[in-house]
Give the backbone structure.
Amino acid sequence: MTSLMSAGIHDAPQQSANPYVLAGRPLRQGSRLEDTARFSDDVWRLAPAIVQVQERTVVLNFPTIPARFRPAVKRLFYALLCSELESPPGEDRPAIASVRSAFGELKRLLTWLDSRWPADRVELSAISPADLDRYNRHLLTLFPHRDGAREAARAAVRLLWRWRIHLGNDQLRFDPLHLDGWGKERTQRGRENGTGRLPEDVLGPLLVWALRFIDDFAPDILEADRRWHERRAAGTGRVTSHRVDERLQQLLEDHIEARRPLPGHQGKINISQLAATLKCHRREITKRRETIDAVAAAVGVADAAFVDEGIQGVLDGRPWIKAVTIDHTLPTSLAALARHLQTACYIVIAFLSGMRDSEVKHLKRGCVEAKRDEEGNTYLWRVHSRALKGEEDAEGVEATWTVCEPVVRAVRVLEQLQPAGQNYLMSALLHGSGQPKKAGVDRAVGVGATNQNLNLFADFINELCAEQECTDTIAAGQGHALRLKTRIFRRTLAWFIARHPGGVIAGALQYRHQSIQMFEGYAGTSDSGFRAEVESEQAIARGEVYMEMIDSHQHAGLTGPSAEEAARRLTDFGEHAQFQGQVALDRHRLKRIMKRHDPAIYPGEYITCVNDPAKALCEKARRGNSEGLPSHGGCLPLACRNVALTAENVAAWQREIVRIDGRIASRPTLPPRLRQLLESRRAEIVEFLTANGQEAVPA
């Protein structure tokens, strides 16, 4: 065989002309390098290098590449995979999932070239700017409305330039990025997070139904799951013939007494289900068909066999379903309902924790930690998983998230739903046709399957609403298709924290506390970027408030110690926001303006903070460890010189005085110490408002 060195690979390992392509890569526990793919193999199986539990097994199938380009493609992907080779300056080796994606994109390019080039042109160095210009137009035809798909295709082509030192005579002679239109989408979008968010009228019902599954419907599904596992574990154990008569008689009497149909399948008595229930062979049931048929004539035959008929969960005062069935083709089968329950848990965990999909998928049995006080009362919940994005270690690092109780309830349900030997809580369930006989203890469902399950969950809820005449459907609105994806939950949470502190999810105090938990428990353990996402949303929200104030000239009517400074900053901001004589409210332009010219004014209910760290009294800003941001949790509004007041702020203080007056006048009479504190608080507020030219109580 021709050596790799002579084929054009620089720095190839000298000890072998047929090296292991995964050499130097971290391997999954239990995998040996000696069992992995070698350079000469036609198919490279990359599963041993997939160390994240949610990622799917992938292969590089080189026979699908046109034969004349196959040697060059092998050299490129060997360089991308083998960590023992030197990377080009400034390049990092891509993750396995990225390698597989790039393979597919290059296959697209080379198949397209193979149909256009003459047979004697075999070196990729012959690719010309004209070729790539035509290919770019081809991509526009394939993906006219998918900027991301076109960018991914072009990025893969650039690998022929970026990794050219390993391609010998096949290296690309120019950087495609300099071609017209090649970097168009990236230039327009930058690297901004383009993930959308769930509208409130979608998120509300989605979260409510997920919690209903966890709190109201889970007992029925878990009981059916328990019975299903019991019958499965019973295996081939058989009762004696005379015991069959006794058990069958009792079973039939139960059906007659309850007027409950016998289990069926496609309109006929389900012999297999009866045999499984009685723990006997099918022929024992067949021998007694005359007796069974007589009972069937009296009580009927059901559409399916039941795992559990004793439904406890209710919806609007009625059982939420009639029964849990074993027919996996029915919407109320155990396979479907268990999958929906797992999806409901995913929704609650993903949205209320801020965890990424990969982080949810690494949750294990026993991941919940409870912090308790001296009396044993829980005051803090934490979950442990692995943070993966942005970490140098491919397997990620241990991380902790502080969470609320609904997340804990979701985790507890998942622990019951998985078999005892399964560690990962988001592993594929065993019910249904085609599922494995044993749970894989080291794998979780992939992101594609979860995306599909999210939409199946919404479809089931909408069908249930139609059947039960409920109005809280999960719909995207008329003319819009609902497409739920895993990445949307974290983005939506960032939006809610920024835009709706104390919003619609769990009431003002609880949700405000939730936003504090996000920063304490999540941003503090890993370079997650979640805090940056939230602060970006908060900045845009503040920018919109600034524009409204400027447009209505509210900034000219501020009062308080920093009123003049606030007016000056907002006037300057308004000048930067002007574009050809008009105020620009485009989100992307506003984000850029806020990044460059943020006036550092923070509107609040009682005060508008005009942040100047030198004057700030709040503890974090005074210590200088809050990245220049004020700490509203430690705000001293009646004493701080960074305070400005809007008309809404003044009204909030006046309402506070009215509330205090109501407490003081309440009966029975307040304890003297509490009355003294309230009177002192009232006097401070009155003094504060009077000093700033405002009436303590409106006329």
Q: What stands out?
A: The chain has 22 helices and 16 strands.
